[in-house]
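SAMPLE LOG
Freezer: B-3
Tube label: C17
Construct: single chain, 161 aa
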Amino acid sequence: MKKKRGNSNNKIVMRVDNRIYGKESLALASRVLSDRLAVVFRKAGGGAIEVTLRNAHISGQSLPRNAPGLPPPDKSADGGLEFLTGEFFNEALNQECRLNLSRENANIQKMLITKAFLSARADSREQPDAAKGKTFEREVNKLLMQAKKEMAVQGRVRGGK
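STRUCTURE (predicted):
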């Protein structure tokens, strides 16, 4: 989990466990909030990442006033940096979940694309005779079974059923 290492009026420095927040999800979260936060990453010991967060307007970037979907400007000493820090880590978790889901569904996606291409190939040719049709069907079923076996193995490795 994250540990607060330091806080001043214009920045917050956090030490983040990279097993929870991956580099890619942190980078994506920083892009999503780039209009409100300036984010700097550094490697820290023990497989951690040091994340420094600053208000974008304090860092020399312009901050839109009363933009749709943004909370009203914060008059607190840190300019709402505590709130934005929470938003950043919430977005990082959202990105991490999205990336994990994408990885988990990669084999299903490949299987569906393969099936679609094989079906398109069969439709684009002249109508195959019965022997060719059965061979084609066997090949598709073989590919589907291989994909299902791979998904089952991955589920067991991740601690699934």
